[in-house]
Design goal:
The chain is 39% helix and 15% strand. It is an alpha/beta fold. Bound molecules: pyridoxal-5'-phosphate.
């Protein structure tokens, strides 16, 4: 059996090797390494795919979040509401800009930010909400946009894990994840659903003025060459990465169906098992399965991980420590017990291998092994 990995990038590459190799070679031949035509082409292709007016490529997903908050003019002391159950980057940029992160708990089923908790957290200092579309499906954007509208708040979608997912509004209309709020941010980290071969990221918006501001900020705050009107950063998507992404974007929907097929297999194998809660599929979002995450009930998680590792199966914990319990983010406003859903999830979740190349032999080995341990 082929070695099982959390993400099998090499096998994926082999399917598209001629196109990827050619795209990279074209950039090398042109020597247009920075802001070359590959970047513009990918930007336009992604705008079409997402049906959004502006895509602003940048260096990574963390920068995408940071430049979004800068472009929206958030100021030190402004409060930004986000989820306590996410990757650290979401809170990191809030802290770096000296904004005040206000954490709220998540829905136990979908792991996404709970709109009722958002409403309770709003104060006169609140300026923005950062929902994270965790593990591949959208947060409840109808409710979030309504709360934001009522309270005059910006919405910055952290879409690093759900590119390609559709949000289905209460009226049945659809939009791509990341194109609903004032800005959407994504990461092209290699293991992401649309990943490049290094670091990469992008911001999406339908707001012309905001797009203009974002383009200036990612380029040292420069409007005319060597004239710097505002403080910016250096955050670009390399041409070689854009060339890789241009090839992979054409496969994104097919990649999502392969991930979904693997998730369906897992769901069926684990259905009805009282010790395993399979991912809840939110009715107002398609799921692109960035992760396939089980919630364990009365199962020794470390024991399961070790048992699987002995059988050549990796399994990861996303995320073992809630934001408010991370050393760098300890804050007298928060204490253990404040976010019970997040805290329980951080002790009971486990993510199984999820990628575009899982075959049925591997899936059977994974599910048989999980069931052998939990039923044993
Ligand atoms: C939810 C979330 N936000 C932000 C990021 C940051 O993206 P990057 O690693 O490209 O900086 C990631 C990915 O790592 C993520 O999963």
């Amino acid at each position: 059996m082929k070695k099982i990995q959390m993400v099998d990038l090499h096998s994926q590459y082999l399917h598209i090797k001629p196109q990827i190799d050619q795209a990279i070679q074209d950039v090398v031949d042109s020597c247009a390494f920075i802001n070359g035509p590959a970047v513009k082409n990918f930007q336009e292709d992604l705008e079409k795919y997402l049906d959004v007016k502006h895509v602003i490529p940048c260096a990574n997903g963390t920068d995408a979040l940071q430049v979004s908050m800068m472009a929206l003019g958030l100021q030190p002391g402004d409060e930004v509401i986000t989820t306590s159950f996410t990757f650290i980057a979401t809170a990191e940029v809030i802290a770096l800009l000296r904004l005040t992160p206000v954490l709220v708990d998540v829905d136990p089923g979908t792991f996404n930010i709970d709109p009722k908790a958002i409403e309770k957290a709003i104060t006169p200092k609140t300026r923005a909400i950062v929902p994270v579309h965790l593990f591949g499906q959208c947060a409840p954007m109808d409710e979030i946009m309504q709360i934001a509208g009522k309270n005059n708040l910006f919405v910055i979608e952290d879409n690093c894990q759900a590119i390609g997912a559709d949000y289905i509004f209460a009226d049945g209309s659809r939009k791509k994840a990341g194109t609903i709020g004032h800005v959407g941010c994504t990461s092209f980290f290699p293991s992401k659903n649309l990943g490049c071969y290094g670091d990469g990221g992008a911001v999406f918006t339908n707001d012309d003025e905001l797009a203009k501001q974002l383009r200036v900020i990612v380029n040292h705050g420069m409007t005319v060459r060597y004239y710097h009107d505002i403080v910016g950063v250096n955050s670009r998507l390399d041409s070689i990465q854009a060339a890789v992404l241009g090839v992979k974007l054409k496969h994104l929907d097919e990649y999502a169906s392969r991930r979904k097929a693997a998730a369906d297999y897992y769901d069926q194998a684990f259905a009805g098992n009282p010790k395993l809660r399979t991912p809840v599929r939110y009715s107002r979002s398609t799921h692109v399965f960035h992760q396939y995450t089980l919630v364990l009930r009365d199962v020794d998680r470390k024991g399961l991980q070790d048992f699987l590792a002995d059988r050549g199966i990796p399994a990861m914990i996303y995320y073992p420590v809630p934001l408010h319990m991370q050393k760098a983010y300890l804050d007298p406003r928060y204490k253990p017990g404040d976010f019970p859903v997040t805290e329980a999830l951080s002790e009971t979740v486990v993510s199984l291998p999820m990628h575009t190349e899982l075959n049925s032999e591997q899936l059977k080995h994974i599910t048989d092994s999980v069931l052998e341990f939990v039923n044993g």
